[in-house]
Amino acid sequence: MHSSDGGSGGGNGSPQEASVLDAVLENARNRRYLGQRLSTAGERVETDDLVDIVRHGPLLEALLDEPLDRRGIEERLDVSKATSHRFTRWLDERGLGERIDHRFRLTGLGEVVAEEVLRFEANVRTARRLTPLLDAICDDHDEFVVEPFADATVTVAAPEDPYRPVERFVELVRGSETFRGFNTTHMAPLVLGEFHRHIFDETETEIIYRPEIVARLFETYPERAQNAVERGHLRLRTRGDFPYGLAIYDDRVGIGGYDGTTGLMEVFVDTDAPIARQWAERVYASVRADSESLDAES
């Protein structure tokens, strides 16, 4: 998956956070071509070697934290003396570790490999947790990156509680003084009065909808919607299509995936991670720049 770079959003993250995000996005853009680049270079790592490295992930992680002697390796990993000897021999043979003053430490190569194994595990874990969202936006994976959502809250609809994602979404709106977002359909069902009370009267709101969705909003709440727009409390913009639903609150960002048939929110994923906010701000700025303002007169 890779992300649209989205231009310069109104993000409030630090320069360091922005640079980290830039690196994540650049890596995401390039990763689909890595196989081709590696094949061209003619230096592919054997599959068995890759599997061996992942299998030794706990050892690499332990030594990434601190140098350890053999006794420390045995205690940290709960392995036998024979296994610790095999581990340290493996490190030495592959140039990933070295022994200094009776303790084993990672080489520069070993540190990089250890970090990449942890990154791989983190991304696989995140992708598994985000499976309901990835399935819901499967046609638009190219517009989404996984890394910023490693610690996200994932709320999934269930047969006995189909509105759980919507309830989580509205709960966050209720606790936020501002709200911006775009969506493939209504942010919440039109019959959900509490959400629309917030966007009409309480929360400073900017929403980007498809034109027909805006029309239905005004059909359902003609006076309240018009008054909110006239006061400048609710700013509406329109655009042809969206990859998914995006929500930006005071201190969290969220992504919604919808059932293509019913239009109901199937999953909502939200996080307060600064890098996720940086990503969301960029995506929102990109979508907003390609939208049209709906003023009070129109």
TrEMBL record:
InterPro entries membership: FilR1_middle_dom, HVO_A0261-like_N
Domain Methanogenesis regulatory protein FilR1 middle: from-to ranges: 162-290
Boundaries of every HVO-A0261-like N-terminal domain copy: 46-129
Descriptive protein name: Transcriptional regulator
Organism of this sequence: Haloferax gibbonsii
Pfam families: FilR1_middle, HVO_A0261_N
